[in-house]
Amino acid sequence: MSIWKKKPLSQLLNEASESEKGLKRTLTAWSLVALGIGAIIGAGLFVRTATAAAQNAGPSVTIGFIVAAVGCALAGLCYAELSSSIPISGSAYTYTYATMGELLAWIIGWDLILEYAVGAATVGIAWSEYLNNLLVNVLHVDPIPYALCHSPFQTSITGEQGMINLPAFFIVAAISLLLIKGTKESAFVNGLIVVVKVAIVILIIVLGWNFINPANHTPYIPQNSVFVDEHGVNHHFGGIMGILGAAGTVFFAFIGFDAVSTAAQETKNPKRDMPIGILGSLAVCTVLYILFAHVLTGLESVEFFRTGGKEASVANAITSSMGASYQWLSQFVTVAILFGFTSVILVMLLGQSRVFYAMGKDGLLPKAFGDLHSKYQTPYKANLAILVIVGLFAAFIPGDIVGDMTSIGTLFAFILVCISVIVLRKTEPDMKREFKTPFVPFVPILGVVVCLAMIYGLGWTNWLRLIAWLAIGLVIYFTYSKNNSKLNNPNK
Q1: CB 374 within 8 Å of CB 381
Q2: What is the spatial distance between Cα 473 and Cα 21, in angstroms, rounded to a whole number?
Q3: Is the bond preceding 143 in cis, omega lying within 30 degrees of 0?
Q4: 10 Å Cβ neighbour count for 374?
Q5: Which of 228, 81, 146 is nearest to 92 (CA)?
Q6: E strand spans, 307-451
Q7: Nearest Cα to 476, choosing from 111, 99, 96, 76?
Q8: What is the DSSP letter of 47?
Q9: CA 113, 51, 452 angle in degrees (round to 5)?
């Protein structure tokens, strides 16, 4: 048994051609663009923008978005080639299995579990917080009791003890069941959400532009300094390191097109639709991000986002700088955030279940995860397992999970995808490619460099967390996955 054994490309392509026996092909290019936008516009736009401005870059958070977008575009071109040439569920996990062998495939699959599970649970907890915001500030009714919307490890300033975060568990469970019902139905619901929240984002940009205070954009790139947050963690603020830190912080929001590639096997025409879905969602969201960040940092000062305006930062900035006459817009933002968080959770859980599905079929995880529902043709056992894992995490763990963990996991996946393109060009030069990454190996190498720069900007504490997670994964691989791998144990 070799830990470096590769999954034959011919086997992957045969699995794709037999799609009528597996996952249903129901998604179009528009569905994929909507899925990408659904993941990208959400926690990043409404939460991470203010966080990155306060902790890292001030007004130059817009440059951080550009750096993150460049890294995504370079990796996205690599994703587009691989996902259109190898239209199989599993995203970077599958591509790595075909190009660099089983051990690295396991590492990236384990990394993707971190990316999606931590991300979905964290956004689920944020969804719970904004549900209370909706109840109090929009519907003007009593909030959910503290004990029923906070984990047992949390205590309010008045001494109330949390018990369980029921709203967070509810949204994770509801979306998991929707995904079991079918990918097409899930994509339709997500499409409606995308239309609503994109319209509201554009409304904020258009109306807020007239309230930008130029003083809040001066200096646009603050001088180098150190900002210490309420947890005692140091952050590089200002200068190049601040911009790189901001890029890594907001990168949490750019994983949408990564999740799009996990649905390749359910796409009607993957060779045409995958590049459109991946690059189209990235292009739309990058423009909206830069404009939104420019408006938000112009409405209020960095100090505002560090203090009184830290929570519900967008709604608070609108109320503070645009006046009572725009209270309706602040309320709309609260609704948009709930919509945004909902679609982010949907796409993350979709991506997580498809990675479980691919790894279950390969024997690296229990084979039950590779079973499809007899009626809906979805990986329902994988969805149910994720419902339990992510749901319990959201219900009982506090919401101060560092979003940077999701960012660093994603960046690591992107690096391996960029390398996979170079390797596959050498080992399979005659493979039919409907979409080719331009200027290989220059584009993939540049993608690796930009992603490494953002990982560097996230700081050593996040490097250690990633290393610890990967160490746990290696233990599982050598004690279970290696012995149950179908590729290394064909007779099992």
Answers
A1: no
A2: 31
A3: no
A4: 7
A5: 81
A6: none
A7: 111
A8: I
A9: 50
CA distances from 453 to 158, 348, 456, 457 (A): 43, 25, 5, 6
As to burial, measured by CB atoms within 10 angstroms (0-12 exposed, 13-18 middle, 19+ buried), residue 275 is buried
The two three-digit tokens of residue 66, written as one number: 């550009």
Q: What angle do CA 460, 466, 470 make, to 5 degrees?
A: 145
C-beta atoms surrounding 139 within 10 Å: 10
- Structure token pair of residue 193: 């959400």
CB proximity list for 230: less than 8 A, separation 6 or greater: none
Burial class (CB in 10 A: 0-12, 13-18, 19+), 281: buried
Per-residue pLDDT of the chain (492 residues; tens, 9 = 90+): 577 788 777 777 676 565 445 556 777 788 888 777 766 776 667 777 888 898 889 999 999 999 998 898 888 888 878 776 776 655 677 777 877 888 888 988 888 887 788 788 888 888 888 888 788 878 889 989 989 988 887 777 778 888 999 999 999 999 998 888 865 556 676 667 777 778 888 988 999 999 999 999 999 999 888 887 765 667 788 889 999 988 988 887 776 666 666 566 677 777 778 778 877 888 888 889 999 999 999 999 998 988 866 666 788 889 889 988 888 888 888 887 887 788 778 878 887 887 888 888 888 988 888 788 777 777 888 889 889 988 988 888 775 544 567 778 888 888 988 998 898 888 888 877 767 888 899 999 999 999 999 988 887 777 888 888 889 999 999 999 988 888 877 776
Of 365, 308, 392, the C-alpha closest to 112 is: 365
Give pTM, 2 decimals: 0.77
The number of CA neighbours under 13 Å toward the Cβ of 170 is: 10
Calpha distance 51→159 (Å, rounded): 27
The helix (run of H) or strand (run of E) holding residue 225 is strand 225-228
Residue given tokens 């907001």 in the structure block: 250
Cα angle 304, 308, 312 (rounded to 5 degrees) comes to 95
Two structure tokens written together for 310:
């830290």
Rounded to whole angstroms, the Cα distance separating 279 from 286 reads 10
CA–CA dist 293, 53 (Å, integer): 9
User: Is residue 250 within a helix (H) or strand (E), and if so which, with residue range?
Assistant: helix 239-250
Tokens at residue 208, please?
A: 């807020």
- Closest by CA to 394, choosing from 61, 166, 121, 55, is 121
Q: Which residues contact 206 (CB under 8 A, 6 or more apart)?
A: none
Under 8 Å CB-to-CB from 170, ≥6 apart: which residues?
none
Cα separation, 46 vs 314, whole angstroms: 6
